[in-house]
Amino acid sequence: MTKCKYSLCRMVFLFLLISSALSLRAQHLEKGIDSLIVKDFNDPNGPGGVFMVSRKGNPIYQKAVGKANLELGDNLSPENVFELGSMTKQFTAVAILMLEQAGKLKVEDPVLKYIPDYPNGEKITIHHLLTHTSGIKDFTKMKALADIAQKEMTPKMMVDFFKNEPADFAPGEKFEYNNSGYVLLGYLIEIISGMRYEDFIKNQIFDKVGMSRSYYASDRKVINKRAYGYHKKESGYVNKTMISFSVPFSSGSLMSTTGDMLKWQKALNGHLLLDAKETNKAFSKYKLNNGTEYTYGYGWHIRDINGTPTREHGGSIFGFKTMAVYIPGEDIYVIGLSNCDCNSPTRLVGEIAGFVLKGVKEKRW
Fold first, then answer.
1. Distance from C-alpha of 116 to C-alpha of 174, rounded to nearest angstrom
2. Which of 21, 88, 260, 332 would be a feasible disulfide site paired with 327, CB 3.0-4.6 Å?
3. For residue 122, how many other CB atoms are within 10 A of its CB?
4. DSSP string spanning 213-261?
């Protein structure tokens, strides 16, 4: 009986010791990340940001700073829905790969196969569009963009807007980030699938992954826990400039939460949407015509933190800036969503990822 009690006490002591150590590790992690965030996001009464870190699919840090709506004074929370901007591109890229997996296209296909009148369409491939190597004029750099920014455009109208512009370079000659290529990919998704891009993303991706708080953006829909976007002027904060989301379309018109984006990352890891072969295409580096390698796959930048490989992408759209970094070797996902385009989380998310990675390698948490 005494021996049994002794064993029980020892087990309780060990449990308390382990719990205390885990608590101290969590506190150290939280304190370290907080100290990074406060340098850039330090106005509790202005728009701010929501940040999340996950390890092995589970959140280990979440923080919301600032207001979701300045007029109402609502605080930001991890449940808030943000416009993603160019993080939309990874969903567009995966949609293309899903169609390839279903045998409906090949990334080597020329654009001409699906749009017979597209200029130079016999030389521009889907691969060129995915990797920003097509040479097509980026519509965001066209002066005439202001004329259509608030108009309701069909995908064909958007493609017609830029398709006859002189090319910046021959396909495959150069890597140059390009929104037009991803608008064209969205149009191809509609042509090949027979579905609106918006419906394809919702039915084939959001619903399958369980991303119930993710949407094709709208300023008219009532979206629960929407984070409102802001600019900062000399006089103070102002509401974001209104645009038609049919203009950025498949290059930048999706909305989501940090929690839903974690579901997305887990779905990619678990091959819920793509098999290993197609997934590998998204996260590979490719080469230009002259053999030079560039650090972009299909919808993601393929980079590293001090030699440790990462998959990264950010986004920027009126009133919002976003960034996410995934470290596949350690299954670390870091995401930051900001509701003021005055405050980009890009550098900060990279710093957080580096801090967490260092701690994991040193076995500090």
1. 24
2. 332
3. 13
4. T-EE--SSS--TTBPPPEEEETTEEEEPPP--TTTTGGGT-EEE-HHHH
Closest by CA position to 127, among listed 90, 89, 97, 88: 97
Pairing of strands 320-327, 332-338: antiparallel
Cα→Cα distances 209→86, 225, 251, 334, Å: 20, 20, 21, 19
The answer to whether 124 and 134 have CB atoms below 8 angstroms apart is yes
In sequence order, what DSSP letters do the residues of 147-170 get, joined into one string?
A: HHTTS---HHHHHHHHTTSPPSS-
CATH topology assigned to domain 46-361: Beta-lactamase (3.40.710)
What is d(CA 211, CA 205) in angstroms, rounded to the nearest whole number? 8
Q: Which residues pair with 74 in a beta bridge?
A: 69
Distances (CA, A) of 289 to 133, 170, 171, 355: 10, 10, 9, 37
Structure tokens that stand for 346 in this block? 């890009």
Q: Give residue limits of the domains in the chain.
A: 46-361
Per-residue pLDDT 10s for the chain (365 aa) are 555 566 666 665 555 545 444 455 778 999 999 999 999 999 999 999 999 999 999 999 999 999 999 999 999 999 999 999 999 999 999 999 999 999 999 999 999 999 999 999 999 999 999 999 999 999 999 999 999 999 999 999 999 999 999 999 999 999 999 999 999 999 999 999 999 999 999 999 999 999 999 999 999 999 999 999 999 999 999 999 999 999 999 999 999 999 999 999 999 999 999 999 999 999 999 999 999 999 999 999 999 999 999 999 999 999 999 999 999 999 999 999 999 999 999 999 999 999 999 999 999 88
Report the alpha-carbon distance of residue 191 to residue 198 in Å, rounded: 13
Helices 155-162 and 179-193, axial angle in degrees (round to 10): 140
Taking the C-alpha atoms of residue 310 and residue 287, their distance in angstroms, rounded to an integer, is 18
Are 203 and 216 within 8 A, CB to CB? no
